[in-house]
Amino acid sequence: MVTVSPERFEALVVAALDSLPPELGRQMRNVAVLVEDESPEGPGLLGRYEGVPLTERGDWYSGVLPDRITIYRMPICAMSDSEDEVVREVRITVVHEIAHHFGIDDARLHELGWG
Predict the structure, then answer these.
(1) Rounded to the nearest 10 degrees, what angle do helices 6-18 and 83-101 cross at?
(2) Is the pTM of this model over 0.85?
(3) What residues are paired with 69 via a beta bridge?
């Protein structure tokens, strides 16, 4: 297990977001990215997407609260043996959850190597 402060972990999430292609970032709509220590759903969850994927939004979609992508610090740190591994897992988790925002399901993410 690696100890990474909440502030440093947040900076890693920001860096992962900043590393995405700009054209992808420009297409993200009404989504907030948050960092929490652990999931209330139980241990081991690295990230969670809650919302309506872009592919499912229609004319009815207006005036809704932002989608939420949450990245969980403690499980990622617990599975990592170095800060480099934390950086890698944060990036994978951020990409995985953003893919859900774009309507890509877990099965397809696993096929692409982002599972």
Answers:
(1) 50
(2) yes
(3) 33, 49
